[in-house]
Amino acid sequence: MEAPAAPxxxxxxQLTVTSPDQMRELxxxxxxxLRAGDLVMLSGELGAxxxxxxxxxxxxxGVRGAVTSPTFVIARVHPSLGDGPPxxxxxxxRLSGGLDEMEDLDLDVSxxxxxxxxxxxxxxxxxxxxxxxxxxxHRAVGDTTDEVRHVTVSGLGERWAATDLSVLSA
Length: 170
What we know:
The chain is of the alpha/beta class. The protein is 22% helix and 26% strand. The chain has five helices and seven strands; from the N terminus they run E-H-E-H-E-E-H-H-E-E-E-H. The protein has helices at 20-31, 50-61, 99-103, 107-110, 158-161; strands at 9-17, 39-43, 75-78, 87-91, 115-119, 132-139, 149-156. The protein has a seven-stranded mixed beta sheet. The radius of gyration is 15 Å and the shape is globular. The relative contact order is 0.25.
């Protein structure tokens, strides 16, 4: 039995987003690329736009319920209103136990039939799958009136190697 291949980086996509509406639109475009079994990890400081991006993703996927930050409930499931996969939105900010606490959420059970988006998942969910989309949102620190965000999208694994991420910048 061969050891699994190291994750392949499909190439990073750099985007500049200048408003919350543009961040939602990025989420809507991203929804067109996603399918059941996909894991999306979102990173960025508080107020960077992770939940805004996920809200657009939910709109693009056509899921039920308003996508809001699941900070206090940890995870929220949004069933599809059509025949698409449900969206599982996780906020791992308050989880300190790493994968043990994440296992309590049974994300490994949900992953094959869902799209799972995890905010603050670094060091906590990478073991779920080697194939994932990592999105890092940088914002200017200090000047809170600045809406400009620099977004880096990285696809890891075979699933993303053949996916053209440039459609996100359309």
